[in-house]
């Protein structure tokens, strides 16, 4: 997909880093992040979700990720996707 001027559109990803916590809270945090549709990148040990997927649905993934940050201390930030990155799966 290109823009009207022929250039590639700027795309962003949400990067999520789960907080290392002990006990069942870690599993709850992981389940919550996974429910957002984010995929886990084993190389960087972070979760990733294309921004365009985070804004749709009855409960947008962005709201789910903010809840993970508030309730469990997960970190969520926005990063511009590099043209060579193609790792992401679509949310189910």
**Strand composition percent:** 15-25%
| Major beta sheet summary | 4 strands, antiparallel
Along the chain, the helix and strand elements come as EHEEHHE
Q: Count of DSSP E strands?
A: 4
| pLDDT < 50 runs, ≥5 residues | none
Strands ordered across the widest β-sheet: 2-3-1-4
Structure summarized in a few sentences:
By secondary structure, the chain is of the alpha+beta class.
Describe this structure in words.
This protein has 92 residues and is of the alpha+beta class. It has a domain at 19-76. It has three helices and four strands, in the order βαββααβ. A hairpin with a 4-residue loop joins strand 2 (39-41) and strand 3 (46-50). Helix 1 runs antiparallel to helix 3 (61-72). The longest helix is centred in the first third of the chain and has 12 residues, at 24-35. The chain is globular. The model has no long low-confidence stretch (mean pLDDT 86).
